[in-house]
Amino acid sequence: MITAGRQYYLDNLKVWLTILVIFHHAGQAYGNGGGWAYTPSNPAEFLPWLGNFFSVNAGFFMGLFFLISGYFVPGSYDRQGGKVFVRKKLVRLGIPLLVMGALLSVLAGKFETGHMWYVESLLVFCLLYALYRKFFPPVRHRQQKPVLWGLLLIGLGMGIGSFIIRKVSPQDHWIWPFGIIPLPMEPAHYLQYVMMFVLGILARRFGWVEKMSDRLGATALTIGLLLASGIYFRGHGAWSAFIWRWFGIYESFLCVFLCTGLLWLFRRFFNGTSPFMQWCSAQSYGAYIFHMLLMLLLQAATDTIWMGALGKFLFIGLVTCVAAFSLTWALRLIPAVRKVL
Prior knowledge:
Layout: H1 8-28, H2 50-80, H3 82-108, H4 117-135, H5 148-168, H6 187-206, H7 208-211, H8 214-232, H9 238-245, H10 247-269, H11 275-301, H12 309-331, H13 335-338
Helix pairs in contact: 1-2, 1-10, 1-11, 1-12, 2-3, 2-4, 2-6, 2-10, 3-4, 5-6, 5-10, 8-10, 11-12
């Protein structure tokens, strides 16, 4: 049985990641960030540098979401047992997926899950973990310090796998497995998500985050930030060509080191809380679920209002954050909704 006090740094990190996801989506209408349901009527509302913002974000932030989610899975299963664990995951993940998926599908006129692919994949991962635990004992719980060569091996394994996958399925190519399973996935990043979820489980069992030294954490953060800077300042020359040629490997090292560094940074310096941060943490899951529809409505409503491309990006991101967190708070006043969100 795993027992521990409240780890506020993970709550704070999830809030920050949720806000980053919202701003990432806010930028997709104003930069080359893949398909988006809204296109500005004014072509001047375009920021070329947002492409670097998207590349860095996509390289790590959903992987970190999966790692944090995986981190809480073993303890949740141990406390509740298999039946209760599965039932609660079906309620907390399955109900929002069905409701939001149905709403998005109606609005799109076709089957559509949008950003709920993450919730759907997380539900599948949790159910597979429950199935594993039904037949196999948990990984032995022992404290263990993470080491630099371990991060290098993980990054290398993830990178080689991602590089091979992208030979047949490039980034931003979404599929249904076998053409029939309604689980939209991007193969280019999916190996990362699976590995990060499993690493979260192992990190909990072995106490990797708690035992991480300041030296390793600071080193990982520095390497992760340098790799991120390499994307932001890549330009259009030989360095840019090198990154794109080996991006599956480059991005995997960025993911492993930046995620490790951020876990250390928040554990070391942002492990406190306040009434406001507790409020934000309680609303973060709902804010992720609701933000896309609120954002599209806001973008359509402000389409003819000129704020400059940067101003529009920041305005849409900020207002959507406030609206999504506030809407979640209001809905969670309803007891039945509170059990889900």
